[in-house]
Amino acid sequence: MKFVRGYVVRRELILRSQRKPLIRGEHPTRVPEKNSSRDSRKPVLKTTVDKQLTLEKQFNRAGTQFLKVDVATALTFAETALGTQDAPKKRRNRKSARKAYDTVVRMAKKVTLSDQDSKELERGLQRLRANLRRLGETF
After folding, report:
1. Which of 29, 41, 91, 112 has a C-alpha 20 to 30 A away from that of 8?
2. H-helix or E-strand spanning residue 109
3. What was the pLDDT predicted at 81?
């Protein structure tokens, strides 16, 4: 099967003059009917306060883990760049480390960190900044 402008087309060539109008059941995607009683743009799910708090905790946990992994990855890129003499490899790894650093700094503002996680993240960022400065980055 092949899709052409959102329609499923069989493999044989269909000339414009041979096309048939689509019958209701043939449309490849569900199309809402006009004047339907339910507005599909309005959210149906209503969260409770407990559910919201649980989701916030999960978001913070996942965000914290992401930040830790991203700092470790950025440090790996920076250390690889510092350890190589190959100019393209050095530039590529420096750029990747800087992009990861910028991402961590931006995302850290959106996550509520515990004191221990905050200290650990700050130590990693200090090491990363030092390595990036050695590679010629400015802050």
Report:
1. 41
2. none
3. 96
pLDDT of residue 122: 96
**Contact yes or no for 70/128 (Cβ under 8 A):** no
Mark the ranges of the chain whose per-residue pLDDT is less than 70: 1-47
- Verdict on whether the full-model pTM lies above 0.70: no
Alpha-carbon gap, residue 71 to 123, rounded angstroms: 10
The closest alpha carbon to 104, from 85, 136, 78, belongs to 78
pLDDT tens column, 55-92? 899 999 999 999 999 999 999 999 999 999 999 999 99
What is residue 113's three-state secondary structure?
coil
**Which residues contact residue 77 at a Cβ distance below 8 angstroms, ignoring those fewer than 6 apart?**
93, 94, 96, 97, 100
Q: Are residues 6 and 29 in contact, defined by beta-carbon separation less than 8 angstroms?
A: yes
Q: What one-character-per-residue DSSP string does 26-83 give? A: G-SS--PPTT-SS-TTS------HHHHHHHHHHHHHHHHHHHHHHHHHHHHHHHHHHH
User: Is-contact 68 120, C-beta < 8 A?
Assistant: yes
